[in-house]
Amino acid sequence: MLKAERFIGPYLYVGYHCNNDCIFCSEHDDYLRMNEYKPISLLKNEILLIRKKYDFINIMGREPTLRKDILEILDFARNLDFKQVGITSNGRLFSYPLFTKRVLDKGVNQIAVSISGAKSQTHDRQTKVKGSFEQTISGIKNIIQMSSDDISLLVNFTLNKLNMNELKETLTLLNSIGVKEINILNIAPLSSRSNNKLLIAKMSQAGKHLKDVLKNAETEYPETKILLVEFLPCALPPELREYFSPCLEKNPRKVRIPICDGCPYSDSCDGVLEDYIHLYGVDEFKSLK
Questions:
Q1: pLDDT, tens digit, for every residue of 48-100?
Q2: Beta partners for 63?
């Protein structure tokens, strides 16, 4: 019935540490088992392997900016002529203008920053770090202010039951400070922290809320690109399927279910996470044939 698919993508995990302690962290369990410092010599070898297959690379975490040699890593990637060098961050260190300038000077042309609410109380409750919201917003502003037109800033809104009601307010806030690309990211139940129904929203239930929030998105945020990531078209209202975006970071724990056969999205959708099926089953997914 279920068939897992495997994929290796151009994502470089450079560190095991983070200055947030997010209650939904999908990497929490894996990184707790990794206590040794990942040497830069190993990372450089991984970058070379990625360059053989891809012309873009994304440097990830948990929080990659905490590495003291992050600028050296970025410099090494730049010298391999990647068309795109990206970094995914919680944005806090970008609240320091000098750090932001140094990263941008290394040729980074995409920065993805995560946010978990429109208010400090909501965001900080989830990161478990007081003041993290103010630093993240300040970091986003610095990136916008200091970036040239060829640098992409992408903000990931980590949607879950604790912040769903602040989605519209968050979109309005991000739009007001100049963010042009927003991913509404469905939190996946990939760790002991996130694998619970108190936090993870059922996709179909979240879809009903998203439908209401985004019904006037084209007029309210006309210059902002909004995508739904880690939501499956077969669990969304028809009006939202235009926002569907496949997650480029492939996960071997995703599987196909019977209704995937003949689905018009089969080339771009990788299936359902086994962890999600264990949590909510498959009854909400409807055939789109």
A1: 999 999 999 999 988 999 999 999 999 999 999 999 999 999 999 999 999 99
A2: none
Cβ atoms of 234 and 263 within 8 Å: the answer is yes
Tell me the pLDDT tens digit for each residue of 210-269: 999 999 999 999 999 999 999 999 999 999 999 999 877 778 889 999 999 999 999 999
| Separation between Cα atoms, residue 234 and residue 287, nearest integer Å | 6
Name the residue among 163, 95, 180, 101 with its Cα closest to residue 126. 163
Residue 217's closest CA among 184, 253, 262? 184
Fold classified for 10-253: TIM Barrel (3.20.20)
CA–CA gap between residue 279 and residue 189 (Å, rounded): 8
Buried b (16+ CB within 10 A) or exposed e, 195-217: beeebbbbbbebbeebeebbeeb
Number of Cβ atoms within 10 Å of the Cβ of 14: 23
Q: Which two tokens stand for residue 244?
A: 């569907």
Our measurement of the distance from residue 29's CA atom to the centroid of its chain's CA atoms, rounded to an integer in Å, reads 18
Hey, where are the domains in the chain? 10-253
pTM, 2 dp:
0.92
